[in-house]
Design goal:
Family: Belongs to the N-acylglucosamine 2-epimerase family.
Strand order of the largest sheet: 4-5-6
Number of strands: 16
Keywords: Isomerase
Low-confidence stretches: 4-8
Protein name: AGE family epimerase/isomerase
Radius of gyration: 20 Å
Helix content: 55-70%
Pfam family, one: GlcNAc_2-epim
Structural class: mainly alpha
Strand content: 5-15%
InterPro entries: 6-hairpin_glycosidase_sf, 6hp_glycosidase-like_sf, AGE/CE
């Protein structure tokens, strides 16, 4: 490498470092304090579901979800000074959402009474995911017990003979309507990876490999390599670019688990397809949904999809990915972040479509920013 090219690379790394440092500072000084301040409902002992974007005031309460509490538990378990609040969140998760008859309620009402008592795979996956992070941080034996019990329940109650899982069941775990969806399976993959890393339990490795095989069989469009939201052949199916990037990151973070599996090879194609058709070149904005031919069917740009795109770019580790990441870092803060927090959804023209700030979003920021931090050492 010439002295000139070496200097240019050094300058690029410095620029990336400054941009990432700015994002982290906004997260630490603006985003996180929302959820121990105005976003914390002291009397019920849970985070509000959402805050107003213009002044960070709590929005009217209709429900509290177990998944939202679990995501906050994950976030604060990962913070250097967050353990005390994580302790509070873990206690609240068990007190408010554990069903005495087994598993976890989907939601409670504004007064804390059970609201939706159905059993939802997405929710149970996030309980495992959050407890893995919390147990690793705190050493709380109850967290390990909840993790193990919930994973066992998922396998015995949600598991299907073909190796995938029911997306939702009735309160008593009976099947009301057979449905297999990509998104809960993706978050279960995320949860099992976290549980495997936290506990060292090698049971998770073959289970994760089998999930990858079944996702390939059930959801991957052979024409473009993308993971569809519904099983192939379903009516009104769609491709979400953000989920291509999110799946890519999960497999990229665990090469010892997945190796050179067929799903990984598909995702290389799927991410290229999503980037080509779903990412706006000028703004780096990621569209919500495409059809199988790459036409945009939902141009909304949701903040979580932007952060999953950044995480995937950070994990690529090549020059092309770093160049794309630099473009993303130049565009994202001005489009999505502000002094009170963030815009949840904007249009391709930058118009704010949803300005509330859900309590679930800091989880997406946290996972992306962690990948950015690791990229820069």
């Amino acid at each position: 490498m010439s002295r000139t090219s070496s200097s240019a690379a050094s300058n690029t790394s410095a620029d990336l470092g400054a941009a990432v440092a700015s994002l982290l500072a906004h997260y630490d000084s603006t985003v996180l304090p929302l959820w121990t301040g105005p976003g914390w409902h002291e009397s019920i002992g849970l985070p509000y579901e959402a805050l107003a974007g213009h002044d960070a005031s709590p929005l009217p309460v209709r429900r509290y979800r177990a998944m939202a509490c679990a995501r906050q538990l994950y976030v604060f378990s990962r913070q250097a000074d967050g353990l005390a609040h994580a302790d509070t969140l873990f206690a609240a998760l068990r007190r408010r959402f554990a069903d005495p008859d087994g598993g976890w309620y989907y939601s409670i009402d504004a007064d804390g009474a059970p609201l939706d008592t159905g059993k939802d795979l997405y929710t149970h996956a996030f309980v495992v995911f959050a407890c893995a992070a919390y147990w690793r941080r705190s050493g709380n034996a109850d967290a390990r017990a909840v993790l193990d019990d919930t994973a066992a329940l998922i396998e015995t109650k949600f598991g299907m003979p073909d190796g995938l899982y029911h997306a939702a069941l009735a309160r008593d775990f009976t099947v009301e309507r057979k449905a297999v969806l990509q998104n809960p399976v993706m978050h279960l993959t995320e949860a099992y990876l976290a549980a495997c890393e936290a506990t060292g339990d090698q049971w998770y490795v073959p289970r994760l490999r089998e999930i990858a095989r079944q996702v390939q069989r059930t959801f991957v469009d052979p024409a473009n390599g993308c993971i569809a939201e519904l099983p192939l052949g379903s009516a009104d199916n769609r491709i979400e670019p953000g989920h291509q990037f999110e799946w890519y990151s999960l497999l990229a973070m665990a090469p010892s688990v997945f190796g050179a599996c067929e799903l990984g090879e598909s995702l290389t194609r799927g991410c290229a397809f999503a980037h080509r058709h779903g990412v706006a070149p000028l703004t780096q904005g990621v569209a919500a949904a495409l059809d199988a031919d790459g036409r945009i069917i939902d141009a909304t740009q949701r903040i979580w999809a932007q952060t999953e795109y950044a995480r995937a770019l950070a994990l690529r580790g090549d020059d092309e990915g770093r160049a794309a990441l630099a473009r993303w870092l130049a565009a994202f803060p001005g489009r999505f972040l502000h002094g009170h927090g963030w815009h949840e959804c904007i249009g391709p023209d930058g118009a704010v479509l949803r300005d509330e700030m859900p309590s679930t979003t800091p989880y997406h920021l946290a996972t992306a920013y962690e990948a950015l931090r690791k990229l820069l050492g």
